[in-house]
Amino acid sequence: MTKKTNEAASGRFDYDALNIGAQSKKALEATAAGILALGRRSTEQAFELGDLLEQASELVEPGTFEKWVSQRCDISSKTARNYRSVARNLAPYRTRAVELAVSPTVLFHLASAPEEKIEAALAHAEEHEGIRVSEVKALLADGADPSSKEVTSTELADIGGLSGLRALIDLKTKSGVAAFVESASALAKTVDDTLESKPQGKRLQKAALVPVLEPLARAAKRSLGNVLLLDAPGDVDVRKLSESELPANSRWYKVFSTLDKLGKREAWPEAKELEIWLSQSVLPLLDWATSRTKQPEWPLEVAVASNSPDKVMRSGLEALGGVVRVDAPSLDLSEDEDETLEDYVPPAMFTRRGGASETTGSNVLSFGSTESLPGLRKPKALTRKPAEASAD
After folding, report:
1. What is the domain count for the chain?
2. d(CA 209, CA 357)
3. CA distance 354 to 373
4. pTM
5. Which residue has the higher pLDDT, 261 or 143?
6. Residues 210 and 279 in one domain
């Protein structure tokens, strides 16, 4: 949210009507700014949001807090309670949860669970490289190890007909989407942290970034390929995709090809262009691809329009000192029919010197004489204006 939008949201909430003093208002506004600045909801940000909401709840009455968080921060009361529960009840497990990248939705379920269930869920996440919402629900429902419920997916593979096939595809899609969001979010956070930690005035060092970003990009690309291309196992060469699989002018193709490029160090731009590429292309695309908004705005339309061939050529010419426009003389004989060549004297540099003997038998036209060329009209641009009569 921009500063202007933030101020507008602040103006819509009437602090005076709820008897909130100036000091509390100032603290609440600072908290609201911190909440709205969080952006993506990673595991760490889920805890940070819960902490901020806990701080805000201590500044106002319970009923007033629900109104404030809903109107000022655009967060429902239920969602606010969930994040506050995560901050209060899962604080001892914060480090482990962040390292395992446990999703906020899973944290919501674990926030009200007993200690042994939380430990069991985190142990499952460590063993299976993550835990899904369905698994944590199964764990909390009857105490069984969530991995024991995976027999359902095994049985699903034996169900015939189109319904069984669709169920398998749905299962693959859900797990694939979750894997892509997790890997793409981790990549986005790494890029974001890299840009923020870069010393002012220094270039990014490709040698240091390659071993960090390259494997994350490859993992995100594989996950996206598994979702978009169900019949393409393993890694996919973006250059071999057909139009029926993924149109080359589509936005998801742009995301896929960007991840493909980021996963190949030889395809990276030069060091002087690396920061611009990461900040203005890679990061916006990752945000767009992992956005939970129903129809997120495409982030690269303005950049593409500004780099049109015409503008690129014009900017290049301007960099060389500007564009000088030269209008060619008109060759339309219908214009200026009254003008003649009688008073026209060509520049000296275009006039041949010498007598008629030089032109005899020659295929070179003398610029000094036009009498032998009936019907020839001089261009308007080369017409000399008649000299004005002197008053003397």
Report:
1. 3
2. 78
3. 19
4. 0.41
5. 261
6. yes
